[in-house]
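Handout, tutorial session.
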Amino acid sequence: MKIGILGGGQLARMLALAGYPLGLDFVVLEPAEDACAAPLAGHVRAAYDDPKALEALARQVDLVTYEFESVPAEAVAQLGASLPVYPPANALATARDRNNEKNLFNELGIETASFAEVHDLAGLEEAVAQVGLPAILKTRTLGYDGKGQQVIRPGGSLEAAWKAVGEVPCVLEGFVDFDREVSIIAVRSVSGELAFYPLAENVHKDGILRLSTCLHDDSHQPLAEDYARRVLERLDYVGVLAMEFFQVGAHLLANEMAPRVHNSGHWTIEGAETSQFENHLRAILGLPLGSTAPQGHAAMVNLIGERPDEKAVLAVENAHLHLYGKAPRAGRKIGHVTLRESSAERLHTALDRLYKIL
């Protein structure tokens, strides 16, 4: 069985690493010459919407998945005409547009922050009157890791914010005074089988995820699973889905979803019985899903911009280093470290030790 992946970054790389023990092979479609998944897969080097490249990919593989939601819808449509593509195209169309995404959440009875659609400067002024300030102006598509976003505070210039995001369609979201940021990794197979990982608590800096910690028996787990189930079933979803929330007291406000394996689920590689990557492959192939039970207490620390001292990292007991083969660059995710310990106290101690190194 050979699987095509649109995108050749670290998520494709980790999918391949999870798939080889299952006897799977991979081909990635990725324009970058130095794609970090290329050493583990065949590499069709071309733009994601190149018709001839998509045809070449389709001839080589049995089904297709993707590693990020910026894949052009036209590419998915072309591939879907000749072979299975998971997650389904409607999920991609929803998740890559923040306005569509939030409307879906509200239709399903899932709480969100207040928001309004923005098409022009006059519309931004109307949105501010509706949502209030402070607020965040976000491009409807293509924004990630803090990109395509502008915070607007009372007294701030709306015109400057509008120009800063490129004067493209946006949503304005009201600020949320949250207690925690949490996410759930959910998975649904072609047979409809469902599985959910424990919630993770996430810490961001400058719009980039820095730390995810697996939560054991969290009181918000049933609500998060209920919300994820509503989305999975409405979209007839297949594969791994990540949903990010702001926790406010007993409430979970959905921030966004990602139709793919997700950074906040990297802890599952060593910290769960079955990783999110293996379960994504099981789901799209119609195999029984693996157990999502946590193994000990786990956390994931992203490595941003600079390569660490590998010897020092590996000297931390129960630390697992994952480097993606990417050249260091400011703001770039070049790897992560997973820590797994026997107790929450030991995990916090290990995290403190790791942070002194990084």
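The second record follows below. Compare its token runs with those of the first.
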Amino acid sequence: MHQVFCSPARYVQGREATLILGAEMVKLGIGGKTLVLASTSAKKHLTAAWKETFLQAAVDYSIELFSGECSRKEIARVVKLAVDMKAEVIVGAGGGKVLDAARAVACELQLPVVNCPTAASSDAPCSALSVVYSEHGEFETYLFYKRNPDLVLVDTAVVAKAPPRLLSSGMGDALATWFEAKTVIDARKANQVGGATTISAQALAKLCYETLIADGRAALTAVEHGTVTPALERIVEANTLLSGLGFESGGLAIAHSVHNGLTTVKETHAFMHGEKVAFGLIVQLIAEGKSQAVIDEVLEFSQSVNLPITLQEVGLKHPSYNVALQIAERSVAEGETAHNEPFVVTAPMIADAILAADAIGRRHLSKSNERKLVAAT
């Protein structure tokens, strides 16, 4: 198996970076009639900046609102719009699902794609794949593309205005990157693009984790106050670029499979991708038999940045073994990344790890609350 590393053609990040979007597109030779697929929030915050940057670059553009779910129906709807307007470039602006849909549309029409995340809420922007859900929010499949985005541009002034929960979710997604990549490497399995992992991808995945531990809490504080700080810039890069390159060229394992399993339970649908991945990581660490010290570090970090460490925190107040088994069965479906582990993964094994993760998380919360009470007295 040959080593394979992939990445977007160009990555740009910084305060008010949207103002150079048109110029960056022109540099890459991807001007022309542009369809901007935007979330409601992106349209609200960026319409004026788009008008300025596209005018300066002489780029003709139209804005279309995203429906809210990256489903096959939504992808087909936007494809038709792009064909009707004879679009030459697709720009996605918003959260991970908007960007997933934009990449799917661009792939189907064989057009260049630009991703402009308005929150560092997942590692989707840099990847050559999309996660497709049903219209009811259940995971359906991954779509894989021939190439990564032509341009990823992150405006950190916009990210700083996003709800803090979005940054936390991005850290949950990024938190799993190193652990999943290390599992794939140790198991000598293929990464998400079908090759062996390069030492570059391994180093980026590890740096992602180290950056989260060092700067995660400070970055969340910055967003809670709507400010752009060096810590926020580093976490935005970790959530978006380091995790994006690390997961795709490194590989996925149980954590993301458990996320997919969780989507089969409707009570979890109000929770974000990264939040469910964060809980899935605890499940993975338990299934792999990691040391309590490693698990405790992940639990401490997760709690510090408001990530879930119990089933109740992802909507399951009274989890039963049958519910855990339902989640587990989807997690070990054929083709799932849970099978990238160096051992045989079964549904009962994952169900047990899910309930064990919940118990350990609840115990950690209880001890944490006890410490707070002692400190207050």
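Points raised in discussion: The two ends are 60 Å apart (CA to CA).
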